[in-house]
Amino acid sequence: SESSELMKKRTEQSKVERDTLMMELNGMVQKMINESSWWERRGVDCSILMAAFVSLPTAFLQLGSSQPLWFSLGVMLGVAHAVITVKGTHLASHRALSESQVWGKFWTTFFIEVCSSFSAEAGVHGHIKMHHAHTNVIGLGDSSIWKVSLLLRIIYLFIAPLALPVITPLVAFGETGRALVLVIRTVLMVGLGLYSQLWLHINVSGFRSMHSALFCMLACRAMFSVPYIHVNIFQVRMPSLQNKTR
Fold this sequence. Notes:
Helices cover 72% and strands 0% of the residues. With 246 residues, it is mainly α. The chain crosses the membrane at residues 69-86, 150-173, 179-200, 212-231.
């Protein structure tokens, strides 16, 4: 019918317009990259990551202090962990830390699996193939990664995110796929990251109890989980008030 033909032409025309806009956008981005210096492309982000890593020894030592003021400075550990896991993981997933394929793969595994306790393959796929597949379509806005519609808003936004340090590795083991090599690597790398931090809390910070060291580790990892979920969810189009969350 004429109406269906008209709709088809409009759809095709709309697709061509979007493709044209994306080509123009890609051209502008590539031009910006070519005109940028190494410091602008990688230097600033690498410096921020380096500062986070450099602050780790001081943070672990301050957590072992008996003085409330010095102990409170141990909050740097939570800040450093947030910088390393959020910024480091994001840069690594885009292979933005190195032009080398080998080093790019290394940093992806290190930041996503060792530092963030998640599967590297699942993390890259979720961010590049799913998240940006949505954001790169003009007019759709952003996409929220974590949707748990069965939770009330107050729980979703202020309580449930605190469990992310426990939930993340469990989800990672379920997202490793069927390749035995990837499963073993993910389990070993996630275990290495968790064990290393726990060991540092006991042997550097001086926690005498395994339970207190574990609680401190989870608290540091959850410190910015509530702001993270707020940034994540408020980038999306919120549903009607009849829905509890998106």
